[in-house]
Write a structure and sequence with these properties.
The complex is a heterodimer of chains A (about 425) and B (about 180). Chain A has about 425 residues and is an alpha/beta fold. Chain A folds into 2 domains: about 5-235 and about 245-260, Aconitase, domain 3 (2-Layer Sandwich); about 270-415, 2-Layer Sandwich (Aconitase, domain 3). Chain A is about 30% helix and about 15% strand. Chain A has 13 helices and 19 strands. In chain B, helix 4 crosses helix 5. Chain B has a 7-stranded mixed beta sheet. Chain B has a single domain (about 10-165), classed as Aconitase, domain 4, CATH 3.20.19.10. By secondary structure, chain B is of the alpha/beta class. In chain B, strand 3, helix 5 and strand 4 form a beta-alpha-beta unit. The longest helix of chain B is centred in the middle third of the chain and has 9 residues, at about 95-100. Classes of the chains: A alpha/beta (about 425), B alpha/beta (about 180). The interface between A and B is large, with 59 and 59 residues.
């Protein structure tokens, strides 16, 4: 019996030839990414007395950057102290910062065939690059940083085989929504994305889909390695890639084929993701919005900002709507400046913020009041996620969010004038 | 009485439904509270006042996809509430590890929602994989907790293990708030 991609990575990092379903694999991480939030939550963080490998522990500030409070400022001061004490090689302080999953991809820390550990639930983002990552907790991160050790349950895997190509104004976000709506939760299973159709899925779409996989409760989520992966990684890696490929006779819990041509834009209703979507073509409710948000680890990429700018170019955000755009990293920010995207967005009435997790987790820079409605391209819509528990959060693609910002109601981006063709 | 060394717990049951997420257990407002107050907001959005009613030694029974969501330390919050064990129809993988790493054994048990009414007494043997409703004299068998996970629970969680092995400082870091 062959092995899945995840089984191969867990086997290699646990020093075994194979891992078996149901066992606990004790692995050595290839890279550990430490973020600011664990140090800001009182009682959650303990100063490491050792670091397993200073070249394999990175510090990236993302959740509350620049600090909105004394507590966050103190947390990041501690992060700097920690990085200095152990001479860490990869440090992304304010100015080089960004959402950790975005930075990890850009900076070549998420490498094919490797295992990345980070105490954030959207760590599965690294799967876009064929790098195994699943969200862990703060004690896990401490164990990984100090001992170079992390445990994982070896679970079954569900494989998605894509075929066809996406239609206009349909993105990786919608592909994920289609999967979440059609198949529901994936708890207790890893997810593998592959098949002939992934050739037509841009790296930005893959990064959205891998990141979003946390919302269906997937363990690991990982894409097959191909030319698109290799192209993205050109010039980013400081050692050769060692991609992991699934065996032809790997054992899957299920193999599901998705025709990308059949995927339509979706909106996900409040307050959870699985089986909670509606195709926008049949969405007949007129939902007025107070806020539209594009940003987060899922959709703060340059491609997302291009989509948004293209939709609002020469138009105005609807009266009464706050359109907040948060680039995923300083690198995305700089690229957007160079391309003139912020000029287009700001002229339309958008607010462009610094790169941070910010509004997505209701902490700063776009927190919702009771009774407010938000359409967001960020990953999560739990009650209270973006602020008041009395607020309602709908999820959509960047195109859907930008189109809705213009009309003031949740809108199918394919219906906004001047965009077809 | 509970015997945490042998992972046998007897306690009063609190029942919650499906899709209990991390933000219900630990809303982001709790991030800014001192550790000994973080648990006071547990379930505040769906069951206000619960944190005052729960008692040390109680057991949490939940439905499908318990603990879906973020990395936030829900195990520590539940422990702060006095919860000693979690049994659910299904538990999110991240939530499960956050519970186990904080010394709260957590286990998937299809059928558990129907096994208990709130207030019943449960006896849970995580090594034997036996979930018993002492009040109604019914029980279920499940796969026992994996040996490594049982070791972590019995040791009091990952943090005490790392402290004991000299990998981390014994007292938590506290970010200044003023």
């Amino acid at each position: 019996m062959g092995a899945t991609t995840i089984e191969k990575i867990l086997a290699r990092t646990s020093g075994k030839s194979v891992v078996r379903l149901g066992e606990v694999a004790v692995c050595r991480p290839d890279i550990v990414v430490h973020i600011d939030l664990p140090m800001a939550i009182e009682g959650a963080w303990y100063r490491p007395a050792k670091v397993f490998d200073p070249e394999r522990v990175a510090v990236i500030f993302d959740h509350a950057v620049p600090s909105p409070s004394i507590k966050d400022a103190s947390a990041m001061a501690e992060g700097r102290r920690f990085a200095r004490e152990f001479g860490l090689k990869h440090v992304f302080d304010v100015g080089q910062h960004g959402i950790s999953h975005v930075v990890a991809a850009e900076q070549g820390l998420a490498r094919p065939g490797e295992l990345l550990v980070c105490a954030d639930s959207h760590t599965c983002a690294s799967g876009a690059l064929n790098c195994a990552g699943r969200g862990v907790g703060i004690p896990d991160a401490l164990q990984a940083i100090t001992k170079g050790m992390v445990w994982y349950l070896v679970t079954p895997t569900i494989r998605y085989e894509f075929k066809g190509e996406l239609g206009p104004m349909v993105s990786g976000k919608d592909v994920f929504f289609h999967i979440a709506h059609t198949y529901g939760g994936h708890g207790g299973a890893s997810v593998e994305y592959g098949g002939p159709g992934i050739r037509a899925l841009a790296m930005s779409d893959r990064r959205t889909m891998a990141t979003m996989s946390a919302e269906i409760g997937a363990e690991f989520a990982i894409f097959d390695y191909d030319e698109v992966t290799a192209d993205y990684l050109k010039g980013r890696l400081d050692r050769p890639a060692m991609p992991a490929h699934p065996d032809a006779d790997a054992d899957y819990l299920d193999v599901r084929t998705v025709d990308l041509a059949g995927v339509e834009p979706y909106v996900i209703l409040p307050h959870s993701v699985p089986r909670n979507g509606v195709r926008l073509s049949s969405f007949d409710q007129k939902i007025r919005i107070d806020q539209a948000f594009i940003g987060s680890c899922a959709n703060g990429l340059i491609e997302d900002l291009r989509v948004a700018a293209n939709i609002v170019r020469g138009k105005k955000v609807a009266p009464g709507v706050r359109f907040i755009v948060t680039p995923g990293s300083q690198a995305v920010y700089l690229q957007a400046v160079r391309e003139g995207l912020f000029e287009i967005l700001v002229e339309a009435g958008a607010v462009v913020t610094n790169s941070t997790c910010g509004a997505c987790f209701g902490y700063h820079m776009g927190v919702l009041a009771p009774g407010e409605v938000c359409i967001t391209a960020s990953p999560r819509n739990f009650k209270g996620r973006m602020g008041s528990p009395e607020a309602s959060v709908y999820l959509g693609s960047p195109a859907t969010v930008a189109a809705s910002a213009l009309t003031g109601v949740i809108t199918d981006p394919r219906t906004v004038a001047g965009l077809r063709g | 009485m509970s015997d945490s060394t042998n992972l046998v717990y007897t306690g009063r049951v609190w029942k919650f439904g499906d899709l209990i997420n991390t933000d219900m257990i630990m809303p982001s407002a709790a991030f800014r509270l001192p550790k000994n107050e973080q648990h006071t907001l547990c379930f505040e959005a769906i069951r206000p006042g619960w944190a005052n009613e729960v008692r040390p030694g109680d057991i949490l029974v939940a439905g499908e996809n318990f603990g879906m969501g973020s990395s936030r330390p829900i195990g520590e919050v539940l422990r702060g509430c006095g919860i000693v064990a979690v049994i659910a129809e299904s538990i999110n993988g991240l939530a499960m590890r956050n519970c186990v790493n904080s010394s709260i054994p957590a286990i998937n048990c299809p059928g558990v929602a129907a096994l208990f009414e709130e207030g019943d007494t449960a006896r849970v043997d995580f090594l034997a994989g036996r979930i018993e409703n002492v009040t109604r004299k019914k029980s279920l068998e499940v796969a026992p907790l994996a040996p490594l996970l049982a070791e972590i629970v019995a040791a009091g969680g990952v943090i005490p293990m790392l402290v004991k092995e000299g990998y981390i400082h014994p007292e938590p870091f506290v970010a200044a708030s003023s």
